Amino acid sequence: MIRALYTAASGMSAQQLNLDTIANNLANSSTAGFRQTRLQFQDMLYQNMVTPGAAQSAQTVSAGLQIGLGTKSAATEVIMTQGDLSQTNNPLDIAIEGAGFFQVQRPDGTTAYTRAGSFHLNNQGTVVTTAGDLLQPSITIPPNATAVTITQYGQVNATLPGQQNPQQLGQLQLATFANPGGLEAIGGNLFRATLSSGDPVTDNPGGTQGLGQVQQGYLEGSNVDVVSEFVEMVLAQRAYESNSKVIKAADDMYSQVNNMSR
After folding, report:
1. Residues 190-201: what's their mean pLDDT?
2. C-alpha angle 142/144/148, rounded to 5°?
3. What is the CA radius of gyration of the chain?
4. By the 8 A CB rule, do 39 and 229 touch?
5. What is the per-residue pLDDT for 211?
6. What value does the mean pLDDT take over residues 55-80?
7. What's the predicted TM-score (pTM) here?
8. What average pLDDT does range 50-57 have in this prediction?
9. Distance of alpha carbon 223 from alpha carbon 202, whole angstroms
10. pLDDT at residue 93 greater than cutoff 90
11. Residue 205: is the preceding peptide bond cis (ω within 30°)?
């Protein structure tokens, strides 16, 4: 019964973290470029009452008797499916259609990666994120530019007064990873490379590294499926309730044992 109490408590604790993950997904269902996360569980230590394969006689061996000691949260998996694209007609809104991440330089000089393509200009005319992080490679748009166009292959052009042909300002590059699900989310729609994700491989959009193309005037929305998240929330609630009933049943059994001495 003591084992049942702790085992059920581990299940309740795991489902609490599961609900926290679901809540974060739902809270970011309208966040541009957000990537859904899923909690993964792992069973805990087993206590061997009878070791599997132990000899019972000269001719037979035991199938074993093992008692599991519960579950724990093992990892969070980032789901990298494509989010829906919505048209904004803002020339600095850029969506990635396919694989890849924009590269941005953080204030500490490190590089972070994002799918959120809502860009702006800072006071020097340089393209930055909503938090002010510089897009990499850096692109500066002249203040007198009358139009800015970005091709699906990432070439950035601007039309200047008195010029008939657009002037090329720079080239967007995207990054990809061997295991994008291993990226570490650090907030602000940003990810950081880890040993699990591997080192970034950069190329132009639509290049030879399997990267997607970019679409100017569009934003990629969150890839959270609200309906499936509600289903997962109900399942988490029922699992939490089931574990709480196990604790109550074990408590009732303790109560019966205590009453035997009276």
Report:
1. 94
2. 65
3. 27
4. no
5. 92
6. 78
7. 0.82
8. 67
9. 23
10. yes
11. no
Tokens of 161: 């007064």
Report, in this order, helix, strand and coil percent for the chain, each rounded to 5.
25, 35, 40
Residue 117 identity (one-letter amino acid): G
Indicate the helix (H) or strand (E) that contains 104: strand 101-105
Pairing of β 127-128 and β 85-87: unpaired
Q: Please identify which residue in the block is written with the tokens 């330089």.
A: 105
Residue 156: in which H helix or E strand, if any? strand 155-159
Chain segment 121-135, per-residue pLDDT in tens: 999 999 999 999 999
How does pLDDT run across 119-176, given as a tens digit for each residue?
999 999 999 999 999 999 999 999 998 899 999 999 999 998 878 788 999 999 999 9
Rounded (5°) CA angle 35-180-78: 35
Asked if 91 and 85 count as a contact pair (C-beta separation under 8 A), the reply is: no
Query: Which residue shows structure tokens 């599961």?
Result: 18
Helix (H) or strand (E) holding 252: helix 226-260
Residue 96 identity: I
User: Please, are residues 76 and 183 in contact by the beta-carbon 8 Å criterion?
Assistant: no
Give the model's pLDDT for residue 61: 61
Beta bridge partners of 202: 175
Give me 26's structure tokens.
């739902």
- The whole-angstrom separation of Cα 74 and Cα 124 is 45
DSSP string, 6-60: HHHHHHHHHHHHHHHHHHHHHHTTTSTT---EEEEEEE--EEEEE-TT-BSSSS-
Q: What is the pLDDT of residue 46?
A: 78
Enumerate residues 6+ apart whose C-beta is below 8 A from 159.
145, 146, 147, 148, 149, 166, 167
Q: Dmax over Cα atoms in the chain, in whole Å? A: 101
Round to whole Å and give the CA distance between 31 and 40. 23
